[in-house]
Every structure is written in structure tokens, then in C-alpha cells.
Amino acid sequence: MKHIRNFSIIAHIDHGKSTLADRLIQYTHLVEDRQFRDQILDNMDIERERGITIKSQTVDLPYIDENGQEYQLNLIDTPGHVDFSYEVSRALASCEGVLLLVDAAQGVEAQTLGNLYAALEHNLVIIPVINKIDLPVADVERVKNEIDDELGLDPDSAILCSAKEGTGIEDILKAIVERVRPPKGDAEKPLTALVFDAHYDSFRGTIVSCRVFDGTVKQGDTIRLMSQGTTYRVEEVGVFRLNREPQKELTAGMVGYIIAGIKTVSDTRIGETITLDTRPAPEPLPGFKDVKPVVFSSIYPIASDDYPSLLEALEKYKLNDASLVYQKDSSAALGQGFRCGYLGLLHLEIVQERLEREFDQSIIMTAPSVQYRFYLDDGTRLDVDNPLYYPDPGTIERSEEPYIRASILIPERYVGVVMKLCMERRGVNSQMSYPTPGRVEVTFDLPLAEVIFDFYDRLKSITQGYGSFDYEMIDYRESNLVKLDILVNGEKVDALSILVHRDNARERAVRVCERLKNEIPRQQFKIAIQGAIGGKIISRSTISAYRKDVTAKCYGGDITRKRKLLEKQKKGKKRMRIVGDVEIPQSAFLAALKTDDE
Amino acid sequence: MNRTDLPGLYVHVPFCKTKCPYCDFYSVTDTSLVDRWCTALLQEARMYPGLGEFDSLYIGGGTPSLLDDRQMTEFISALGGIFRFAPETELTVEMNPDDVTREKLGLYRSLGVNRISLGVQSFAEDEVRFLCRRHTAQQALSALEAVAGAGFREYGIDLMYGLPGQSLGAWQVTLERALSFDPDHLSCYQLTVEGNTPFAGMAKEGKLSMPDDALQAGLFVKTSECLTGAGFLHYEVSNFARGKERLARHNVKYWQHTPYLGLGPSAHSFTGRKRWWNVRDVTLYLKTIHSGHMPVEGSEELSSSQMNMEKILCGSRTLWGINVRDITPPLSEERITGLCDSGFITVEGQRIVPTLKGYLFADKLPLLIS
Q1: Chain B interface includes A569 (CB < 8 A)
Q2: Are residues A430 and A519 both part of a single domain?
Q3: Most buried in the list A10, A83, A555, A597, measured by CB within 10 Å?
Q4: Which of A548, A558, A582 to substitute to test the interface with B, most B CBs within 10 Å?
Q5: Using the beta-carbon criterion (under 8 Å), do B317 and A549 form an inter-chain contact?
Q6: Quick check: ipTM above 0.85?
Q7: What domain range is A504 assigned to?
Q8: Which 8-state DSSP code applies to residue A286?
Q9: Same-domain pairing of A400 and A535
Q10: Model-level pTM?
Q11: Do residues A507 and A376 both lie within one domain?
């Protein structure tokens, strides 16, 4: 055990976490250079494109120091986004130390702080690493000052590195061995192993990633998942190299995997404690939480015949993502679909993109919503995340919506625009602190609903990319909510209804009407598009009728072409939704639901 | 002329002296190829031995009337030797007004041509110039006079409307001028900007200000009202005949899925199930035939659902309408009533027949009923 080190890398987005992980793997010769594929740990397309890690992967790095002593360095990769903060916390709970990566040009950012606090909470050894020192705009001295002033860490303890060029890697590995504590634990005690991740393998079922704190687990044991009380027989235990390597056993201090015939990742929980059925631990490890979705939206197939195929895709997707929850939903305009709950907006986008790319689904996603609370006159409380279930407004005594505390780190010159943005988004309780000269940390309490509506993009754009943002959920607060309906030729398009603060209703209604006007093709009659609260129309746009749709010529050479066009249009029509007599193309739904201003 | 179910023969003459900027029919201006084209065409004709009788021969283009007397004589008589034609076959030649002379008309009559289709397009000088026609408005009038007096069994006039800046009144004048010659047939084409034409380029650069669709619809309705008021039958979106006996027999075959054989570059042929089309390139056409091969570029065999779709799209454009049995899935009574109430169709026994408003939405109608 004294030759084991368990550590994570934590960093703000784009500060080079995956590149550093790759370098560490390469340096410890886990892979030959020629096999080396950049950013081995991020192997999902979306991750590669966005440069963020979504699903974490763990890898054991064999390292021999200058005295010839062999060490087992377990790198526990963490998802790099606030949506997955609980997963991050479980990964950190499995470590004794972290590399806190700071970009030599960008310096400390909001998430760096968030990460630091998380690491401190778990009492981890923190090794600051200043990455990207090869950049011409790198400013190591400034970043060292920030590490000192903003993070309160010893700047002299920071290691300089360029993961891209491979400099400083040896120093990092040495520091891990020297500074990170070896794990404690007793292999003789009853088993406690913390589940920090789970993957689905179509041959083996769920591969559970865990950190063993006490005890030993081996093939043939019967394990028990303590929060659920379910038991499974262990088929295989092992450690992660680039592939899984089976071991005789996993003992206290080790990080590895367990395969035990667990069918889906949803049968286990991140943060779950594994013990032995025959000799259970008296108590589970602390910190287990059942994560609840915070953002909701519905998914519909573009062609209603595709509903069974969408169901199948969701079932398959869910095998590997326990945090997505869904149930059947149906809409008069869009037919049968699913109401889904996500950990956050990024999670929602990931689900959408993966359904489209990997599962080849064409989908319409409704506007993201948070979960509102309505206190009714009969004394009950109704939680609503779907505008379809908005209660009769006459029965509502009061309503509440969830708030977050946003922490925004910006150069001082952007304070004005950021304050303005937060005020527009109904931010309250602003506070400012100046961690270093020229830099400001602004905190605001903001309705979550305002944040899921293009807040981050706006922040990035008004601060020219310098603003960074982190948030935590705080509480529910009273709010004045209304349901905004969109009507096309007098018929309500239920899939476009949203719950919105009364003050924002008109602006949103005008925007949706304008967008629909631009996207719904003219038809042989006039089309009225209206935004309404209850029976009251608050916005309106009109699409004029077209007066003719006929081409002059139809001779021998034209008929095939015309038929092909017709075949194409008929196919397109399947992808249209008919509301009343109006054909609404998919693009109109997508445009109406789009969150950005452009 | 009544329609029959015998197949029709089409010959594409792919030559023009000048190219009109709106036209997307295939033609080239290199008339030095005409003789070789003529030889190749007859060779192509011989590639289809043993066919039954035709009851129409339509010589279109391009500009068939630019063939000189020898060329036209040789090739019409050669076709007569290769194929069999029923008695009373409709034999149409398309003519450009500037090619019309009394001598030429006389020759055509002697060759058995019994129907002339004259590409007048407009009687207004500014419009004729805008369309870059080779003739003047005055030439069109003289040509028309000559054709009308030449004693053909039938003749028709092609006109264009919906031109930039054209008013309802100006179009009415053109129509009345045409009617004053008492033609048997009128084809009135709304100017359409076709891809890969000079007009398409102009439209893209914003240099072509087409009438808005309200005016276009107004022009369309005006055309129909004016001509039906004068006793014409509006039997296809763009075609009017003085009574059922004067329908353009050959063109009707396209809309009724009667078989036809097309010869020459870009010509299309149809057997009732199978359709094929020739290469759209004279040089390649000549080369292919010279090497003894059919100049066919592509073909398709229609599935029954494709066949039905074509029947629906053609039926939406003609007074014969659509047989409800060809509509799958079958139209509900409710839907039919809805379309009648909206004024798109009327029901005549087993057929649903487009109204004038139905014609106005002929490209949309197939989507509304299938």
C-alpha cells in the first residue's frame, strides 16, 4: 500500500487536463508512442470536439523512481464540467491528492476556485501545476501571484509544465510520489469500496470503477451494494491499464474495477458503497447522494413513426448514463415522446448530440425547463418541470423557482457589463471581491431558469471570452410565474409552451413569434402566430398567404423531375408537424426553441 | 383533333440561331451540325424497328423551322419510311416567327404537316426585346397572318406572361391580339426562372424583378377568364384549346401516360412503365450513334406507387383530373369535402378535378391529396 498513490487532475475547461493525462500515460510507457492516439482518455467524439471530458476514465500508471522503487500511480480522471460536480466529488473522495492545473496564460478561473474548494473539502494534497508554459502569452509570474493570492497556495510549490511539449512531466510524477500520501486502510477489515464511476460493456454488463478503502474483494465473492441492498457475485476484479487487466484481488488502498453481472449502470449508483454480503461493513462510506436532475426537456422523434426507434435508442443510451432520467410524454403537436431530466444544460446537449450521432435519431427537443413549485389553495405543493402540467392559475397561491449562486471571475474592466447581464437575469445579492489587483470575483444569486437560457454564451461573449463561471444550487425562492402559450392559427402548439417569469413573458413571446414567422413556409392561406398568457394575446406575427404554386411547363422531360420533387416533398411532409391546417417544419421548432439571440 | 391511345413520336431539333435567356430546353447555336444530326437521328430511329402505329409526330426543339427545305423534306419523308403512322396523324412543327415564309408554309403542307405551333411569346415590342427573341412584334403579326392563311388544319400560338413590369392590362391586350387571329390552340406560359439560364443568373444578382405572387395569380386567373370567355377550354395549366376536338393530341399523351418515343438529344421516351432519356449533348449524341449505340443517358421503371404519383401530379394540372383509385392511402370523405370547400377541386364521379384555384396550386395539390 505504501507504493500506491491515488490522484486526480482538476482544472478549468481548456486548461489542458486531457493533454497532461496523455503525457503521463505516455511517459510511464503504458503505450508505445506509435500507438499513441492524442488524448486517449477522451474517447468520445463530442469530448474530442469540445475538448472536455464527460465520462471519466481511470488508469493505473506504473512508475519507477530513481532508486528503482516501483509505484502504482492511479490517475482518476474526472468530468470537467459543473453539471457533473457530484461525480467529481466521488472521484475526489477516492483520492489522496490532486494536480490543480492552471493555464499559464489564462491564470486562475472560476472553476479553478471551485475545484480547489472541492479538493480542500476532501482534505487532499494539492499540487499546483502551471501548464502551457510554452505559449508565447504565458505569464508564469502573474499566475504564481494568482496561485498565492487567489488560491492561497504556496506558489513555490507549483510545477511548471507544458503537457503539449512534454516538459515537466518527470517533476509531476516525482511530486505525486513525494507529496501525495499513500492510502490508508486495513485489508483485514470488512470491505468498503466507493463506486466513483460505472461503464456499460455489451459483453460484460456494468464495469464498476471503485476505490477500496478497507478489506479485500476477489472473484467469487458476493458483494452487496449498501444503498440498495442488492447482491451480486463477483466475476472479475482488476485494474485499469489501457485495457482492463484482471487481478486476483483488490485490497485496501487500490483503485480498480469489479464485474459482477450488474446489468445496467442504473443498477448501481455513483457514490455507492460496496461491501461483502457475508461480512458487511457496519456503515457505508459517507457522502452518498441520489443525484436529481435539475434541467428538464422533452424529446420527440421528428417523424412520429420513429417513436419505437427513439425508445430503443434511449434505452441503450441509458445503459451507460445513469444520470439521465426519462419517462413517456405526449404532445398534441409532436405526438409521443419522452420527458427527460438532466444534470444540467451541458448534459442535455450531450444527450441530444449522442442520440443524433451515435444512435442516428432525428429529434426535436423542447425548451429546457427547471422544476418549479406551485403551492395550491388546497394546501398541497405541486412540483412541475413540464409546462403541460401547469396547474389552473386560479388555484395557485404562490410559486417558487430554484436559485443558484453564480461565481464569476473577470478582469475588472468587465464588471459593468457582467453586472448588467446578471441584473437582466433577475440576479440579486451581488457581492464583489478583488482577489488580485485587476481581477474581480462577482457572486450573484440567480434563478436557475435564467442560467439555462443562454447565460453562459452571453457571459462569454460580453467578456470576450475572459469571463469564467461556476455555480451551485442554493434554494427555492418565491417567483411570479406564468405559462406562455404559442398559438398557430388559433391552435395551441403545446410543445412550444414555456413557464416563464411574468417580466420576461412578452420578450420571449415576441421572439418566438418572430422566429416562427421566419421558419414556417408561406401556405395557401394566411397564418397568424400568437403568444398568449391564459386568454390574453401578448404578441403576434403574421405569415401572408401565397397566391399560387404552379410551374408553367410539364412535358416529357419534366415529369420525372416533378415526381422526384414530389417524392422529396412527401418525405419532408412526414417530418412536418401539422397544427390545425398549418404545416410546421422541424426547423421552426428548432428555431423557436433556440436559446441564443442571434 | 381527338385524342387516341396510340403512341406519339417526338423529334428534338437541338438547334437555335440564338439562345433565349429564359429557355432551358436543350439546344446549341452551332448549326453546322444540322446535317450530321439529321443522319444520326434517322439512324437512331432505325434502332427501334417493328413498332406499331403512331398517331402524332411532334417536331420540336430548339427551332425546327431553321432547317432548310432540303433538310426538312429529307427527314420527314425518311421518318415516314421508318415508322408507321395512322391515318389522320397529327403532325406538328414548331416555328419561330422570323422563319415563317409563305414558301416554307407551302412546303410544310406538302410534306403532310397539318399543325403549326408558332412561338410568338408577345406582341409588345419591349417584351419581345426583353425576351431576346429574334423577331420583332411586327414580324410576329405578319407570321401569324401567314400561318392563319396557309390552310393548315390547326395552328397554335405560344405566349408568355408574368414578365417583369407587365401589367394586367398589357397582358390583356396581347391575349386579345392573339384571339383576333382566331387560333385553334393557345399555350400561355407564365415566365419561370429556370436554373442554369441567363435569367437565373440575373435573378440571383437581383436584376430580374418578377411580379409578386399576387399579381402572378391575377395574371393566371385573367388568362383563364379571358380565354374561356372566348370559348376556349382550359384543359391544362398552360394550355387552351378551341373545343375538345382541338386539344394538342401529342402533348396530351404526356399528361395521360400514353406511350411516346422521343428521338434526338435530351428527348424522353415512355412505354407505359419504363421511361428513358437521351444524352443532353449533340456531340456526344452524334458520337454514340456513330459507334452504333443507343444515345440513352438514363432510364427508370416506374413502381406502381410512382406511377400513381405521376398520375396525381399530371391530373392536378388537367381537366381530366385524378381517378380516386389512384390515390393511396385513399382520401377520406372528410378530406375531399375539405378540398371542395376550399375551392381546389370538384368531384365528378370517380374523379376529382382541379378547379381554376386548383390549377393555381397544381404543384401543391398532390401534397394535399396524398
Answers
A1: yes
A2: no
A3: A10
A4: A548
A5: no
A6: yes
A7: 482-593
A8: T
A9: no
A10: 0.69
A11: no
pLDDT in tens, B260-269: 999 999 999 9
Q: Quote the number of domains for chain A.
A: 5
The whole-angstrom separation of Cα A70 and Cα A68 is 6
Burial letters for A258-292: b for 16+ Cβ neighbours within 10 Å, e otherwise? bbbebeebbbbbbbbbbbbeeebbeebbeebeebe
Final residue before a domain boundary, out of A365, A380, A397: A365
The CA-based angle B234-B239-B241, given to 5 degrees, is 65
Burial class (CB in 10 A: 0-12, 13-18, 19+), A216: buried
- DSSP class of residue A392 equals P
In a domain, A186, yes or no: no
Helices (H), A320-466: 345-357, 415-424, 448-451, 455-462
CB contact under 8 A, B268 and A573: no
A103 Rama class: left (phi>0) / alpha (psi -120 to 50) / beta? beta
Chain B contact present for A546, CB below 8 A: yes
Nearest to A563 among B236, B237, B310 (CB): B310
Residues A400, A451: one domain?
Answer: yes
Clarify whether residues A348 and A497 are in a common domain. no
* Smallest Cα distance from A580 to chain B, Å: 13
CATH number at residue A450: 3.30.70.240
Question: What pLDDT, in 10s, does the model give residues A32-87?
Answer: 554 555 545 545 555 545 544 445 578 888 898 888 899 999 999 887 666 787 88
- Pair (A243, A332) in one structural domain: no
Q: Quick one: chain B helix, strand, coil %, rounded to 5?
A: 40, 25, 35
CA of A557, closest CA in chain B: separation in Å?
A: 6
> Is A438 found in the same domain as A385?
yes
**Cβ atoms of residues A343 and A83 within 8 Å:** yes
Degrees to nearest 5, angle at CA B304 with B303 and B309: 95
Residue type, A466: Y
Closest to A105 (Cα-Cα) out of A65, A73, A134: A134
Looking at the structure, do residues A24 and A166 belong to the same domain, yes or no? yes
Contacts of A573 in chain B (CB under 8 A): 367
The CATH code for residues B8-255 is 3.20.20.70
| Domain C-terminal end among A365, A383, A408 | A365
Mean pLDDT of A404-429: 91
Contact assessment for residue A208 and residue A274, using Cβ atoms and an 8 Å cutoff:
yes
Q: Which residue in the block uniquely carries the three cell numbers 407551302?
A: B106
